[in-house]
Predict the 3D structure of the following.
Amino acid sequence: MAGAEELARAARSQYHPGMSTQESRAAVKALLDGLSDLEIRELCIKALRLWHAKAPGEVHLQMHGSLGREIIPLLASRKNAPEGDVNALKEPFHDATHEPWMTGVVEFVCWFVRAGLAIPLSGAVNGYPISLRLSRAGVRLLEIDDDHPLLQGLGVDPTLT
């Protein structure tokens, strides 16, 4: 018979695994495969704009929350692939940022911070930030109109779905 701790762990993993699986990592790797750094930046900005539109006034974001939950459907749409379980697929944005196939996402986050659009609040075990706070400039970027020249200067396609 399973011990109480084992049962509790199984129950938690059923509702919130808290870490990526081999399957979720493989799925995200496939979704990112073949995309240029510019395309990944475009998708990350679009994902954050979608998140911010749903939660105006919110300035705290997490890689596997705000970004991960919003970018998975965008990546799936871009690849004409099924979305899958977004809650499972968001987890590699938390604990797989050290993987080579996450380089485009990590470089986007580094750019986003160095551009003064966000402030890193915490790092994961692998040292990459997982929690960010939007700066005032970051909020302005996420709130500007789709046809704003700044978005075109970043290579962001406003029609990207």
